[in-house]
Specification:
Blueprint (H helix, E strand, L loop, with lengths): L5 E2 L1 H9 L4 E7 L6 H11 L3 E5 L1 H7 L8 E5 L7 H10 L5 E6 L4 H13 L4 E5 L8 H6 L8 E5 L2 H10 L3 E11 L9 E6 L7 H6 L2 E4 L11 H16 L1
Parallel strand pairs: 2-3, 5-6, 5-9, 6-7, 8-9, 8-10
Antiparallel strand pairs: 1-4, 2-4
Length: 243
């Protein structure tokens, strides 16, 4: 089982009580009796994402184990804070270089982004808790182990996080087709690069927080690139300029 779910009420309850990093808890639709309510209350107290699904989905994910209406996905890594990422940059005596992955739901894309980020000297990756894949086992595998060496912060509100980064002197660049060509941009100083999903791009609220929008020129007949490919090109340009 690729994601190693925690299955059953007692197992999930004890995992949350122990302080184990949990990406999300999935409960069966309509299954709100008994200890399920205690689990949901603890999830809300600890800001753990709650998802609902049909019984068949829970059975599929738990490989037909007796799930009692609830499973949880533990994190593949221990998440860092945004302050941890800034401290990593300070310790290296480098201006912060941060990737913000907005609404990326494909674990293979996020894993590839983290792999490239680690190669480019990025200090940390920020992902939102909702409408985004977590740093799960598939992300770890796709990153080819880079996730072990990369600080990942999972935040409740990306716009508030960006505002906090700006207070710390970080300039925010959003990858967007309407932006200025990346060839004409100087990525000097502290940089946070926002990469959105190829389907929806960067969310409107996050887009408004960007200081600059940057684009890649397209000479062929397709008008978009995979998020991890586009992110990789921009990360290497930033790394080249920082060198």
């Amino acid at each position: 089982m690729d994601n190693h779910y925690i299955v059953g009420r007692n197992a999930v309850l004890e995992a949350i009580k122990s302080g184990k990093e949990i990406d999300f808890v999935m409960v069966q639709k309509g299954e709100l009796k008994g200890s399920i309510n205690q689990i949901l209350a603890l999830c809300r107290k600890n800001n753990i994402v709650i998802k609902e699904a049909e019984a068949a989905k829970l059975s599929e994910l738990s490989e037909n184990m007796v799930h009692q209406g609830v499973i949880a996905q533990p994190a593949a890594v221990t998440y860092s804070s945004v302050e941890d990422i800034l401290e990593i940059a300070r310790q290296k005596n480098e201006p912060p270089f941060i990737i913000i992955a907005d609404q990326i739901e494909d674990p293979h894309n996020l894993g590839a982004i983290i792999r490239t980020a680690e190669a480019c000297g990025v200090h940390g990756v920020v992902i939102p808790k909702r409408r985004s894949v977590s740093a799960n086992a598939t992300v770890y595998k796709t990153s080819a182990g880079a996730l072990s060496h990369m600080a990942v912060a999972r935040v409740t509100n990306l716009t508030e996080t960006i505002k906090e980064l700006k207070k710390n002197g970080v300039w925010v660049y959003g990858a967007d087709a309407k932006g200025e060509s990346y060839c004409d941009i100087k990525f000097d100083g502290a940089v946070a690069l926002v990469i959105g999903s190829e389907g929806r791009g960067i969310s409107e609220l996050v887009l408004k927080q960007c200081d600059f929008l940057v684009s890649l020129f397209m000479r062929g007949k397709v008008n978009s690139l995979n998020a991890s490919v586009a992110g990789g090109i921009l990360m290497y340009e930033i790394a080249r300029q920082r060198l």
